[in-house]
Amino acid sequence: MDTQPLIADFDVQTIRNDFPILHQSVHGYPLAYFDNAATTQKPQCVINTIVDYYSHLNSNIHRGVHFLSEQSTHMYEEARKTVQHFINAAYSQEIIFTSGTTGAINAVAFSFGERFIRENDEVVISAMEHHANIVPWQMMCERKKARLKVIPINQKGEIILDEYFKLLTPKVKLVAVTHVSNVLGTINPIDTVIKAAHEKGIPVLVDGAQSVQHIPIDVQVLDCDFFVFSGHKIYGPTGIGILYGKEKWLNEMPPYQGGGDMVHCVTFEKTTYNDLPLKFEAGTTNFIGAIGMAEAIRYITKLGIDKIAKYENSLLAYTMEKLSGFDRIRFYGTAKTKAPVISFLIDGIHPYDTGMVLDKLGIAVRTGTHCAQPLMDFFDVDGTVRVSLAFYNTYEEIDCLVDGIRRVIAMFG
Ligand code: PLP
Fold first, then answer.
1. Which residues contact ligand 1 via a Cβ below 6 A?
2. Mutational test site, ligand 1, from 108, 230, 235, max ligand atoms within 8 Å of CB
3. Where in the chain is the domain with CATH 3.40.640.10?
4. Does pLDDT of 103 surpass 90?
5. What is the distance in A from the centroid of ligand 1 to the CA of 105?
6. How many A from CA of 81 to the centre of ligand 1?
7. What is the mean pLDDT of residues 109-135?
8. Where in the chain are all domains bearing CATH 3.90.1150.10?
9. pLDDT at residue 2 greater than cutoff 70
10. Which of 72, 180, 332, 349 has the largest CB neighbor count within 10 A?
11. What class is the 12-42+305-412 domain?
12. 47-302 — its CATH code?
């Protein structure tokens, strides 16, 4: 290793002690986990919160007057406030708990679509979207006889802003764009995207699944209309996510699921709906997931998102420098501003072969289409190898990755 991380107060070795899963061998080698864009590992405090909750407090929320139920309800609503402060939403009722990013986008696609989309209207997405920010809009467009328009990207994997501006016609009723690409790592100029749409009176949904763990988010400064993300990608549990929406939109939108908790009064003739946020939280939600997610947010807030970003950026630069030393590596996603996600192919070697050999060395990378088939088509590849970093990754692990790639090349020629 020839570069040292120089981030004050960011002791990666101590931080790694918080993550029990990292301290194991895979196929006889120390685990090097580089699949963080798929899901992140959980610190002990999150694991403890979930175990403690099931051990001592488990009880359904918003339903009982007994002690455990009241405790549960209190913790769930406190979790909502933790999320509110984390992304600086103006009101806690603008925070809706969902099953994840996918659940949140589907909720908006259905509910916003029902209320605001008419025949021949248009929805704009980008060419680098995850399937979760493509398919729900296609389904909605099919239902409402509307059209999906796609902002093109260049070979570096950057949105072509001039083309985007041209798409913003009076027919467009919503723009839905990812903040950070899960394949390319591109950090999109989301403030410009939002500003341009707002100048035409068009609301914007930001898919924050790959940004909120790397970049400080302030939804009021961004002025986005919707912001969505998943708990499991920010060191929290699976099955929980967030739909942030400006109150003015959420109040106008109809519920997308019916059931318990989302109602004021039910008769066989007519049902009236609850106020925000419960209008959008039908049935028993993943309340323990919400409480675990709040603990994860407290954990990363304590580390400091700014410090996390600084360390991850230095690790990204180191990784790029090392991988660039291989003339047979071709990168996908070379945008000016990038999160720590690197996609590449080794010339003449199938990504699965690369992934399989690295796995045998204890190195976990992702291979395949990364739920972004249209993006693979754009680059004319079947898939890529993806290395996605987190703040618990080390420079030594990157050196192991580089050695592993040397072995892949030696093995496949
Ligand atoms: N959007 C982006 C950019 C993603 O990377 C992902 C998952 O990888 C999703 C949406 C879907 O997230 P989830 O599967 O947690 O709902």
1. 37, 100-102, 130, 132-133, 178, 182, 207, 209-210, 230
2. 230
3. 47-302
4. yes
5. 10
6. 23
7. 98
8. 12-42+305-412
9. no
10. 180
11. alpha beta
12. 3.40.640.10
